Amino acid sequence: MNKIGLIVEREFTERVRKKSFIITTLLTPLFMIALMVAPGLIMMKGGSSTKNVMVVDNTPGQFVGKQLVSGKTVSFTLLGEEMTVGQARSQFNDPDIAYGILVIGNDIVDNPQNLQLILNDASSMSVEDNIQSQIQGILRTERLSRYDIEDIDRILADANVRVSSIQTLKNNGLEDDGSSMEETSTATSWAMGLILGMLLYFILIVYGQQVLQSVIDEKQTRVLDVMVTSCKPFDLMMGKILGIALVAALQIVIWAVLVIGASAFIMPMVMGNSGIDIANAMASGTTDPEVIGVVSKLTNVGYLAGLFLELLLYIVGGFLFYASMYAAIGSAVDTPQDAAQFNGIIMMPVIVAIIVMMNVMNDPNSGMVFWCSMIPFTSPIVMMARIPFGIPVWQVAVSLVILYISFFLMTWIAARIFRVGVFMHGKKPSWKDLGAWIKMK
Amino acid sequence: MESILRIENVSKTYTGHKALDDVSMEVPRGSIYGLLGPNGAGKTTLIRVVNHMTIPDSGKVWFEDHEITADDIYQIGYMPEERGLYKKMKVGEQAVFFARMRGMGRFEAIDKLRQWFDRLGIIDWWDKKVEDLSKGMAQKVQFIATVVHEPKLLIFDEPFSGFDPINQNLLKEEILGLRDRGATVIFSTHNMESVEEICDDITLINKSRNILSGPVGEIRRKAGGNTFQVTYSGDRERFISSVSGKATLIGDSEGLIGGYTQQKIHIADDSDVRPVIGLLNENVNLRSFQEIIPSMNDIFIRAVNGTL
Q: pLDDT digits over B50-74, tens only?
């Protein structure tokens, strides 16, 4: 036991003191935030410069062109009625002067497809969107005015009802006015689950690979020969797994502190109203209250702390389960190349788990999702996505018990492979060899 | 003499290849024991069997008075041929780590290690990373890490490879010192000079079998086969007649500067050399009479080629 402690200590301190650890720990959250906020900011600030669009309007009295409004994205210049498309094309062919020429057909009200944009430059989605929506609005008003109905605008505005969200509540069985019920939100839960599931996926892959790499390295440098004459192979394996697990735990705790700290102090301070804007921008400009809900949940410290606790339980179990597999493989091969084949087999359940996780939003309690959250190979990741939906406690408990029992079983199997594998050099073992090693006395 | 390690009829087969074939050997306590053999003869496999890293197919290994167990490896210090150190770790920390892995307390380890580092002249390297050391430096670190916890049995696989002659001597002195303080040392090597200098006993393994075992002096004398180099001046006929019947001449005589002649002779294994010397002394001017002891290098080559 005391030897395991020593190995854990060494693995932990060596890794934590590395510059790469400090850098990734501090930069990853920044990078994630940048990744989330950047598209919103870019969309808010708009693209680059304003595009100049020349308008050739063939409608009577140029009534469509006159109604086009210049803005930040596009600036319209209405050309005279006498100007033909050909003249305009030869006169405005310099992209510095004109981004393009908009040709509006004379029968556009009845034939809305009679609209062309001739470009001198690369096409731009935002310019096209802008033109389309303006023309659409002009044509709509024009067509409505044909019916000659008084107050048409007010009637339309009144009729334009939008149900943007349902308040979803968790029934707690009490016969009160309903205020004791907890509010739930599908989108929020899904977003949280997705983020957490991905985080766990990242940890399984990154740190699992570190266990694998660490064993292979020691085998290659022959440190292993010295180590196994000082301790039992099992101690060495557990020491490595636990040491690297501690590093992962430390990293998550630091991230949690950073995220909780950011949401408790910095986000409200910096964002205020603009936080909502960013949230809107994040959802491609919609004002969907669900998205705003996610942001407000992310700023709820208690909610986050609770989630991180559950996350940690699954991370520990899931990581230990997978890490012991990685350790066994590391011991059995000589080079990372040889490990690739076995690695692929380990990755399969992880990928299945990710796919199932994506489906959790449709029905967090479907049969497939339920069973995948019980099977230890997939349960850590799938549960990450399910927990935010508020699933029964017994399911979490049973799944955790299965996970931890499986971890002990897997460690036992891995230790038996490890014990033989660390001394094997040269030939890459087959599955049959691994089986024989497990059974070996 | 009481033995610390006894290997009895050990065999080990890897897929299609017999690495050890019925090998036995006995290492006396407090001796320096050389494990010799050409590359691929099975030395490392044998060492791995002793270290409990490989389980033999048959045969037994006894440590002190009992069959060796996994716990006995803590009494054994092992320095593998391919040196293993954590490259990114600082030298001092690493040595402390290995010492603690072998049961020393932190402060005891630091104390002892500093003494060792000082003695081998690498104390300035305490805070350097292993990857910054030269090969010889790293070897010294590895050596210290192997011996610092003062195990009863030390096993060095090719301890002198990678060292310059000065450091080879330094290491030899340290190995002798360890023996004098009560440790038993087994080392495998190709360096036959070092075997002559420091080994008490050897075992020579060739093609997975033990082909020669015993105290170094005895083996060399036996291999010499009672041959002597005689240097004399005087009448050759009288020389021949005085040894005839008691010894046979080997090869031709060689003339030496100053009128001396040199002749190799062989005396029958169980007979006394004194009458031969007496007769020679009477009949010729005897300058020297010296037993020919073959070098370990010769013995090694002859044994491996089957001409010993």
A: 888 788 888 999 998 888 887 788 8
**CB of A231 less than 8 A from some CB of B:** yes
Domain span at residue B244 reads 225-295
Structural domain includes residue A155: no
Considering the domain architecture, whether residues B101 and B217 belong to the same structural domain is answered as yes
ipTM of the complex: 0.77
- Residues spanned by the domain of A131: 51-147
**Dihedral pair phi/psi, residue B256, rounded to 5°:** -120, 160
Residue B96's φ and ψ, nearest 5 degrees, are -65, -40
Residue B304 lies in a domain: no
A203 and A286 part of one domain = yes
CA-based nearest distance A31→chain B, Å: 28
Lowest mean pLDDT among A39-53, A61-75, A144-158, B193-207: A39-53
Both A198 and A79 in one domain: the answer is: no
B283: three-class secondary structure by DSSP: helix
Query: How many CB atoms are located within 10 Å of the residue A231 CB?
Result: 19
User: Which chain A residue is nearest to residue B72, measuring alpha carbons?
Assistant: A229
Domain presence at residue B138: yes
Sign of CA dihedral B62, B63, B69, B70: negative
pLDDT of residue A125: 82
B84:A14 CB<8 A: no
Residue B301 forms part of a structural domain: no
* Total Cβ atoms within 10 A of residue B148: 22
The greatest distance separating any two alpha carbons of chain A, rounded to the nearest whole angstrom, comes to: 98
| Exposure on the CB side of residue B87, measured as CA atoms within 13 A | 11
Distance from CA of B81 to the nearest CA of A (A): 9
Instruction: Give exposure, A85-102, as e/b (b: 16+ Cβ within 10 Å).
Output: eeebbeebeeeeebbbbb
Would residue B260 count as lying in a domain? yes
The token duo for B67 is 């069959």
The residue assigned the tokens 């932190």 is B106
pLDDT tens-digit profile of A286-321? 445 555 555 555 556 666 666 667 777 888 888 889
Q: Give the number of domains in chain A.
A: 2
Contact A225 B97 (CB under 8 A): no
Confidence (pTM) = 0.72
Long-range contacts of A166-174 (CB under 8 A, 24+ apart): A170/A390
Q: Rounded distance, CA A274 to CA A270, Å? A: 8
CB B86 to CB A224 under 8 A?
no
Tracing tokens 């890293």 back to the chain, one arrives at: B53
Q: How far from the centroid of its chain's Cα atoms is residue A76's Cα?
A: 39
A240 lies in some domain: yes
Q: Are residues A247 and A325 in the same domain?
A: yes
Nearest to B102 by CA among B112, B115, B91, B90: B112
Q: Say whether both A224 and A111 belong to one domain.
A: no
Q: Do B74 and A6 touch (CB under 8 A)?
A: no
